Amino acid sequence: MEQIQTNDFDIKRYWEMLIRRRYTALGVALAVVSIFTWGSFLWPDTYEASSTFVVENSSYPLMKDTEVSGTLEERIKNLKSSLTSVGIIERAVKKTALAKPDNAGQNGALIAHVRKNIKVVTKGTEGESNIFTVSYAGNNPRLVRDVVNALVSQYVEDSLNNQKAAAAGAYDFIRSQLAEYRSKLEGSDKSIRMFTEKNPRFVPQSELMLSPKDDGFNSMEVDTDIKLKELLIKRDSLQRQLSGDQAGASAYVAKEGSPQARLNFLNNQLALLLAKFTDRHPEVIKVKDEIEELKREISQAQQLHQTSPAAAELNPVYLQMKEELIRTDAEIESLRDRSAELRRGHQQAQGVLGAMPALQQEWSKLQRDRNEYQKIYDDLLQNLEKARVTNDVALVNKTAGIRVTDPAVLPMYPVRPDRIRLILLGIGLGIVSGLGMAVLLENLNKSYKDEESVESDLKLTVLAAIPEIQTSEDKISARRLDKRVFTYAGVYFFIIGLVLIEELLSKFTGARILHF
Amino acid sequence: MSKREQALEEAVRMRESRGAAGAGALAKAAFPEALPEFEESAGIIDLAKVNKHIACIFTDPYCPAAEEYKRIRTGILKSTSKNFLNTIMFTSSQMGEGKTITSLNLAVTMAKDIDHTVLLVDADLRNPSVHSYLGLTPKKGLSDYLSGKARLSEVIFRTGIGKLAVLPAGEPPDNPSELLSSEKMRVLITELKHRYKDRYVLFDTPPLLAAAEPLSMARYVDGIVFVIQAARTSPKIVARAVSLMKDFTVFGVVLNNVPSYLSRITHPSYNYRRLEKA
Hints:
The structure holds 2 protein chains of 2 kinds.
Chain A: H1 2-20, H2 22-42, E1 47-55, H3 61-66, H4 72-83, H5 86-95, H6 104-117, E2 119-126, E3 129-138, H7 141-198, H8 207-244, H9 246-254, H10 259-276, H11 282-305, H12 316-396, E4 402-406, H13 419-444, H14 451-458, E5 462-467, H15 472-509
Antiparallel strand pairs in A: 1-3, 1-4, 2-3
Chain B: H1 3-18, H2 20-29, H3 36-40, H4 52-59, H5 64-80, E1 87-92, H6 99-111, E2 117-122, H7 130-134, H8 142-146, H9 152-155, E3 157-158, E4 164-167, H10 176-180, H11 183-195, E5 199-204, H12 213-218, E6 223-229, H13 235-244, E7 250-258, H14 260-266, H15 272-277
């Protein structure tokens, strides 16, 4: 409670102190407001003009594929470097009506000023297009407008020329490339032709296709060998029978199903089995046992008929056996010839397979090169068509993919100084500094203000502290002075207010009433 | 305030309401032991011509300033009554601190006291102003007396305000310092001090740091009242002036012209009378 009373008291004290120093506070406030308000008119005006344009991503068939599209920052950087290049600014400045064609120094200063003060910012994207704003600030509103418009126009023109040049360059380049690859393709065809001539029997095929042929030769050779062995065994048997067993031969040859015939069959069977299996195979052992049994039977039968050998020569069976032997020999010869033929074929196939990797490699390389050249050639042919279209489009295009949405207009209100802000700031600072000055002066005033300080400093008794005597005349006089001072101050503030209203109207409606 | 004081204040108001002639008659009656010089040269204050800063003491005895002067009176009476140190010099460190107004208002306040008569001597020969505050246009004053151009009876005036008499400065002389430090001045002060037992003699003098006269006179008076203007005079200046008075008796300091926002600290009961009435 006591604290609240103290604060309340302090506020009252400060308020009365302020009332006492009201002229100081008012004077300081007016001075600050005046400095800001009239100072803003002494500050040279700076006008800013800006133009907004949309840069569309290239719609040309060729450019779309080949265009290097960086990040937005890179694009802004590129755009800014393009727009601030000396060449484009120089051409743009020359286009403005205010540029002096015979004054290089002035134009140079203007170019330097434009380079220094031009601003390029992005305002975002619209579909696949980027929106940019170019702005330039200077003292002459007409000049800044003309410079911005000329700059954008020059940029569009330069971009158009660049695109035309790029399209023509691309077309020419693709054409030259196409010619080069055509000759490469022809060279590749020639190489293939020479290869086939050099290797007439080379049939380009894979090893998988060649192997079954080789396997066929091999299989047939084996079959022929088996058959040859059978015939050789048969011939040995016939020769053996013809050499001593004329009697037995009759039995052997005369009757089918006789032991001799059975023996022949089993011998053949054994030969076949031995070609496939070893001696210890159960089938081989079984056939051998049966053969031995039959041989014993035949031997016993021959012992019974040894009593009549002369009759053998007249035996038709013997004669038949001789014919059989001759036929077998003929077959053996035939089979041997066939086997030799098959062996040659097999060897030839093996030779072909052995020689295949080197040729095939060469062949594959030739084929690969040709295919590659063909593919590039086809692509180039396609791109040449696109380049032709692009070139045609570039020749008739007038915008270079740049659309100016907001051309620069004549700025009516300067961007600097911002008088509205300065006046408002001046009023605010004026009030603060007026109050501050009053408080500051009070605090800087180290004179005696109360009895305690006098007594403690001077060690003298304070008899009394006489308050300010204000007579009615004093009060009337003070009131009159107040009235006069505050009237003048009010009129002055009213003028400041009019200036502020004028600036607000000028900024937001473009209208000027008082023409300060 | 005692009943006696109230009766005296009432008498003053009655006297003022009757006009100048009536006031003069009352004043005359209040000086039973007055010297012939005083009677011969009695003057009458025209309230209409009195400076309004003094008038508040007449018109509104309850105004805050009047209360403060009564405080000074009480303080001085307390300091001086034992040995009756009745010659008091008012000075300050520099001009415009309120010596004249303080001495004049105190003189009026004390003159209203039924027990004392008061003589206010304007000893500021360089810049005399007591007479102008009272609306008087005396032809002769202290300088004339000291230079032998006038008799004492010709230069002391009754004011008609209580038992207050005034000795104006007279024409500003060329040698104020010599006049005020002269033997004649010393004799005059001694004479004034001892002639009447109930009289207080107040001297309004130039500032200490501006003239030598105050230090010359300080040797002859009983004590000094030092006036400081609040919220204006630098403590350094005050300290210099006070150091000059170290060999003399200082009755006290009056902090004058305290701004209202500072008065709230020194006098929180400013509106006591009004509240009482309400």
